[in-house]
Automatic annotation (TrEMBL):
Coiled-coil regions listed: 61-137
Domain MADS-box intervals: 1-33
UniProt keyword annotation of Repressor present: no
Pfam families: K-box (PF01486), SRF-TF (PF00319)
Record-given protein name: Putative MADS domain transcription factor GGM12
Subcellular localization, as worded in the UniProt entry: Nucleus
Keyword tRNA processing: no
Keywords, comma-separated and alphabetical: Coiled coil, DNA-binding, Nucleus, Transcription, Transcription regulation
Source species taxonomy: Eukaryota, Viridiplantae, Streptophyta, Embryophyta, Tracheophyta
Provenance organism: Gnetum gnemon
K-box domain ranges (all copies): 54-144
InterPro entries reported in the protein's UniProt record: MADS-box/MEF2_TF, TF_Kbox, TF_MADSbox, TF_MADSbox_sf
GO molecular-function terms, A-Z: DNA binding; DNA-binding transcription factor activity; protein dimerization activity
A cellular component term, taken from the record's GO annotations: nucleus
Amino acid sequence: LKKAYELSILCDAEVALIIFSSTGKLYDYCSSSMKVLLERYENDFREKGTARDQEIDNGDVLKAQQQVAELERARRQMLGEDLEGLSLKQLQILEANLETALNRVRNRKGVQILKDINDLQRKGQEILEENNRLRQQLRQRYNNRAPLENFEAEESLPIGQLLAHEPPQSQSSDSISTSFSLKLGNGVVIPDNEVSDTSLHLGLPSHS
């Protein structure tokens, strides 16, 4: 404490001294007000710390800007731009990098093409399975409601046409339109398109 007092006198300075003994006892000395001096110290430390942090932040910003500029220049060079300042060795390195990137793109393209082909094959297989399932349902339906030969005659038709063909429904004798050829006793054949809308009157032939 005596040395602190002498230092404040010799240097004409404000001195504050805080001491904690090994037993935890506090000793302090201040040439003026301890509270005022500590506030001045805290304010000065805060201001200098802020300025120091600002310098660090400015340095980080400048470094980040330089990195962004380097990346932008590299991007343009990968696109074949801004090549004037490159040496022969730098151009060779850039060419090798471009070849590597191109090979990666080609490999990825091949993988994607194979994936698309597999997806199309899978979808095609699903369509075939669905087609077979529909044919099986139609087979059962025709077996139950129509003669088997009718279904076999239409077996080769596409599914859409098969769905459009309904099995013949039972009709009354009054509503059936004839679609056959009528052979008369004297050997004359009337085509079905003429018989379909013709009313037949059977009877003995008249003699003139």
